C-alpha cells in the first residue's frame, strides 16, 4: 500500500523540522506541526512523500535541493578583534555565531532588538504568508531586510538562513509510520508515557529477546504497545506474540495500531487477558460484556453480528495463546522469550504469573525506568537458577556534525531506563 487512505496513520514532519507527529488521516482534519497548519484532505489518495502547503492546502511536491538554497553574496572575512563581529573563541579558535551589537535608540526605548535589526514587520511577514509567498522568497526577503546580516561571519550567515528556512518552511513530509519514527515521536513529545524508552534501548531489548521469524514471545508492557510493535515487525508475519493486557480487549496500544501491518503480521498478534492468566483458563462469558441477543432486538442486526464475530475471533486467538502459556515448574509452556516492561507495576508480580510459561533455555528481558524494581527481580531470578543475568543502562547523545564545529547538542533528552536479561535453565535436583 503506497497511497494514503482514510483511516491510515501517517508520520507528519515539517521539512527540516525536529518534531514528529503521528496523525490519523480523515476528511476535514486540521493538522498543526511547528506553526504550520494544513488540512489533511489533500493527502487522501496521494502517495507518501513530500507535500507543499499553500493556504492550508496540501499538494504533492518534488524536492529539489537547489531550489531550497538562498543566494548570499560571499564577503572576505574581516580581521578579528575582541569586540568585532568576526571575532573567534579564545579557547578553541572557532568563529563566534554572532557578535554583540551596540544598543541603539530603539533598544533603549524598550523595542525588541530583533525587530530593530529587521526591516520587515511582523504584519508584512504574515501578509506575505497569507498571499502564498514561497518560503524561499520569504527567506530571501528576510535576509535582504536584515540590517546586520552582512556583518555576520560566514558560519553565522549559514545558521541564520537555516533557522529562517526551518521556521518558515512550507513543505511537509507525510511518511509511512515505522517503529523508529513512532518511538522517536513519543519520546520527544511525552517520554513518560512510554516509560522513557529510547530507540537504542528498544533495539537492545529486541536483540536480547531474539525477536525473529518463527519465535513465540510473551509480552507484558506499559509502553503504549511500542515493544509489541517492534517484535511483530521483526517477526515478519511468522511467529506468535502473546500480548498480556487488562480489560476485555487490548487497549492503550497506539504504537501498535499506528503501524501499517500486513494481514500476515496481524495474525501473529495474540492478545491474552490478565484475568485469563489469573483464573487459569479462558473465560467464555463475561457479565460486563453486552448481551448480543438483546442487541439484535434493539439495534442494527448487522452491527450486532460484526461485534459477535469479533468476540469469537478474539476468544479463538485467546485459546491458542492460553495453550502456549499454560505450564508448571516441571513442564513449562512453549514461550521462547518473555519481555516485561513496567512503569507502575512490580515486575516480580508479573514474573510469578508468567515465568512457568517460559520454556527452558528461554530468554527473559525486563525493562524499567528505575533500577530498584529490577534489582529485586535480579535476586528473584537468581534464586530460581537463571543464568547469564546482566543488568545495565546505556548512554546516548546526539551530536551535531558541521565543518569545524562538531559538538553534542546542548539541550536534549538523554534519560532512559535499565534492562535486565537472563536465561532460564532447569535447576538440577540433588
From TrEMBL:
<keyword id="KW-0819">tRNA processing</keyword>
<protein>
    <recommendedName>
        <fullName>tRNA (adenine(58)-N(1))-methyltransferase non-catalytic subunit TRM6</fullName>
    </recommendedName>
</protein>
<comment type="similarity">
    <text>Belongs to the TRM6/GCD10 family.</text>
</comment>
<dbReference type="Pfam" id="PF04189">
    <property type="entry name" value="Gcd10p"/>
</dbReference>
<dbReference type="GO" id="GO:0030488">
    <property type="term" value="P:tRNA methylation"/>
</dbReference>
<dbReference type="GO" id="GO:0005634">
    <property type="term" value="C:nucleus"/>
</dbReference>
<dbReference type="InterPro" id="IPR017423">
    <property type="entry name" value="TRM6"/>
</dbReference>
<dbReference type="GO" id="GO:0031515">
    <property type="term" value="C:tRNA (m1A) methyltransferase complex"/>
</dbReference>
<feature type="region of interest" description="Disordered">
    <location>
        <begin position="60"/>
        <end position="119"/>
    </location>
</feature>
<keyword id="KW-0539">Nucleus</keyword>
Amino acid at each position: 500500500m503506497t497511497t494514503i487512505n482514510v483511516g491510515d496513520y501517517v508520520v507528519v514532519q515539517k521539512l527540516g523540522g525536529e518534531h514528529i507527529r503521528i496523525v490519523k488521516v480523515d476528511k476535514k482534519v486540521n493538522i498543526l506541526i511547528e506553526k504550520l497548519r494544513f488540512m489533511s484532505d489533500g493527502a487522501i489518495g496521494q502517495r507518501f512523500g513530500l507535500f507543499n502547503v499553500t493556504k492550508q492546502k496540501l499538494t504533492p511536491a518534488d524536492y529539489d535541493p537547489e531550489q531550497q538554497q538562498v543566494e548570499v553574496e560571499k564577503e572576505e572575512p574581516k580581521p578579528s578583534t575582541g569586540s568585532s563581529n568576526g571575532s573567534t573563541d579564545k579557547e578553541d579558535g572557532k568563529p563566534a555565531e554572532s557578535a554583540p551589537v551596540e544598543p541603539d535608540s530603539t533598544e533603549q526605548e524598550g523595542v525588541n532588538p530583533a525587530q530593530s535589526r529587521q526591516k520587515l514587520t511582523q504584519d508584512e511577514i504574515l501578509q506575505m504568508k497569507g498571499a502564498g509567498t514561497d518560503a524561499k522568497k520569504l527567506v530571501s526577503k528576510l535576509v535582504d531586510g536584515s540590517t546586520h546580516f552582512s556583518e555576520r561571519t560566514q558560519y553565522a550567515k549559514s545558521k541564520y538562513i537555516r533557522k529562517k528556512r526551518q521556521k518558515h518552511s512550507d513543505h511537509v513530509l507525510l511518511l509511512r509510520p515505522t517503529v523508529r519514527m513512532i518511538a522517536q515521536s513519543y519520546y520527544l513529545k511525552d517520554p513518560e508515557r512510554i516509560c522513557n524508552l529510547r530507540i537504542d534501548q528498544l533495539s537492545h531489548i529486541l536483540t536480547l529477546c531474539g525477536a525473529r521469524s518463527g519465535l513465540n514471545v510473551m509480552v507484558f508492557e506499559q509502553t503504549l504497545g511500542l515493544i509489541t510493535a517492534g517484535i511483530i515487525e521483526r517477526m515478519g508475519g511468522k511467529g506468535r506474540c502473546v500480548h498480556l493486557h487488562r480489560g476485555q480487549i487490548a487497549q492503550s496500544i497506539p504504537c501498535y495500531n499506528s503501524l501499517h501491518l500486513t494481514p500476515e503480521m496481524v495474525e501473529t498478534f495474540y492478545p491474552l487477558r490478565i484475568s485469563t492468566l489469573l483464573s487459569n483458563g479462558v473465560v467464555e462469558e463475561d457479565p460486563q460484556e453486552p448481551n448480543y441477543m438483546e442487541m439484535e432486538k434493539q439495534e442494527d442486526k448487522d452491527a450486532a453480528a460484526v461485534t459477535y464475530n469479533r468476540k469469537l475471533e478474539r476468544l479463538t486467538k485467546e485459546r491458542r495463546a492460553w495453550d502456549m502459556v499454560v505450564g508448571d515448574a516441571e513442564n513449562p509452556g512453549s514461550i521462547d522469550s518473555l519481555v516485561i516492561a513496567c512503569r507502575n507495576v512490580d515486575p516480580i508480580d508479573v514474573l510469578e504469573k508468567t515465568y512457568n510459561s517460559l520454556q527452558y533455555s528461554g530468554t527473559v528481558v525486563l525493562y524499567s525506568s528505575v533500577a530498584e524494581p529490577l534489582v529485586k527481580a535480579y535476586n528473584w531470578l537468581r534464586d530460581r537458577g537463571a543464568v547469564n543475568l546482566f543488568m545495565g543502562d546505556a548512554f546516548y547523545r546526539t551530536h551535531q556534525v558541521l565543518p569545524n564545529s562538531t559538538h553534542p547538542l546542548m539541550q536534549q533528552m538523554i534519560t532512559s531506563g535499565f534492562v535486565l536479561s537472563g536465561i532460564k535453565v532447569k535447576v538440577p535436583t540433588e
